[in-house]
Every structure is written in structure tokens, then in C-alpha cells.
Known about the structure:
Blueprint: E1 2-6, H1 11-14, E2 18-20, E3 26-33, E4 39-45, E5 69-72, E6 75-78, H2 79-93, H3 97-105, H4 108-120, E7 127-131, H5 137-146, E8 151-156, H6 159-171, E9 178-180, E10 193-199, H7 208-218, E11 219-230, H8 238-257, H9 260-272, H10 276-285, E12 289-296, E13 301-307
Parallel strand pairs: 7-8, 7-10, 8-9, 10-11
Antiparallel strand pairs: 1-4, 1-9, 2-3, 3-4, 5-6, 11-13, 12-13
Amino acid sequence: MASIIWLKYFRFVKTTKEFQVSSKRRRSFSFIKSNDGIMLYDYQIMQNTRTSSSETDTPQSQSSGPEASTHFGFKTVREHEKAGKVAEVFHSVASRYDVMNDLMSGGLHRIWKAFTIGRADIRPGMKVLDIAGGTGDLARAFAKRAGPSGEVWLTDINDSMLRVGRDRLADSGLLIPTAVCDAEKLPFPTGHFDRVSVAFGLRNMTHKDRALAEMRRVLKPGGKLLVLEFSRVAKPLAPAYDWYSFNVLPWLGKKVAGDEESYRYLAESIRMHPDQATLAGMLEEAGLSRVRYFNLTAGLVALHEGVNLG
Length: 310
């Protein structure tokens, strides 16, 4: 059972107790009114769902079936083990996540996100889903642009990260729907959102192909998916980048966040993530059109876009 924290109201769920989002999965909802006027509801996915890991960082499985394996950094683990291992990473770093982002990137992550926000071109009244939204940087900007007539969801599979994001948004005066959910099994109707974004989260997903297909499913015809993720840096910079990643990042993690291993995993997971061209092909395989990508900071990060033409 996963809890969704809902502030104010949610139009398409408010009057619908159950809806079908695919031929195999149904979501059922129950509603609770809390003392402070905040509405909470729970959804139950009629199949096994992981709700403990974070999406804010890993690559695809090597095979399918009960003994299928996948990557956790440079390690090979069983698919069913990865969610818990990634969860441990982000439960550990959630409270220091923003500070570490600034230190690790020298503040560049703010520029990368600003570029993504500009490319999203959110307008008043739009419906936006921010997946693996973590501490809420994109969701906050989207909510301001969508305005009171819009609908912006902040979601993550890791509740520790999501609580930090929810509290930051509330502190800034923004009350938006916040949901713990799995990107591979999104609890939203088909064709509901104008924009779907995922920033520094796709690497964490065990089955990225399934997650991308779900993102396309919930997009309206003409809607856009934006994937901001670490990628392949330009070759001349690779040696220096590798030294920094495997020496400085773990050291910063140890000194600032008290967690060296989580930041070693971060460096490893970046190397295991598909490069720019491969990820573009994955968006196309998921059914998206007009796929393109923008290399940022010499390819250290790339923003991929794709449009759902229906």
C-alpha cells in the first residue's frame, strides 16, 4: 500500500473510485479527510509494487524471469534486490541531497535544470508530472508557470526524498499533489498530462524501457517527455572526469553527508547508463516521436526530448 498525499483536491480522481489504466492493472482509491483540511488517499496496485527505492539514479536488466540480473553500479545483482539497494542510498542521502548537488556540480545542476524548465515551455493551465522529483526543484518551477488553473504532480518512489521535496514546496507556499509511486507502474490515466519530466532519475529504474513506455502512456497526444540525465562526457575530458568521480565524489560524500559508498555508487551508475544515442533510441522504441537531445557541459549531462503523437 502506498500513500499519496493530496493537497486540496484532485479533479479526475475526486469523483472516480476506480479506473483502469491498462488491460491488466487497476487502481482503487479510498479518501480520508484530515483535521487540517488536507485530503489523503491510498491507492493499491493489484500486483506487486516496490515503493521503497528512489529514482533519483542505474540501467537495464540483462535477462528476464525470476533470476534476472541487473546492474547496481558496477555490481551485478538480482532484479528484485536492486530496489532495496537503491532505496538505502537515497534514504541515507535525502537530508543532504541539495547541499551535495551544489558541491558536486559547482552549482551547474541549477543551470541544467533551468534549461530543462525553459524547454518544457509550461503554460498556464497545463498538467505536468514530475517523476523522480526528489526535492522538488522542477516541480516548483512548473507549478509557478502552470498557475492555479494547472495541475503539477511531484512524485518519487523514495518517501524520504519526497518528504524533503514536499516540505520545501510547502515552505515556499506551494501546495501541490505529492505521490509515492513507481515510474514503471504509474497510477495515472492514459493521456492525462501535457508534460512529463524525469531529472537524474532514469538511471535508478530497473526496467527503463517499461518506465519510458509508461511516461509515454500518460502523455496527451502532442505532449512532451523531458529526460535530464548524466551522460557521456566528451572524450578529451573523460580522464579528468573519471578521476574526479571516483576520488572527489566519494570524499565529499564522506565529509559532508557521512556516506562515502552512496556517492561511489553514484559515479558507477553514471558509467552504466546508456549514452546519448542509445537513450534516444530507447525513447523512440517507447513510441515517442521527434526525439532529440541536447548535450550540456560537454556531454556531462544531456536533455532528451520526445513527443507523443498518439
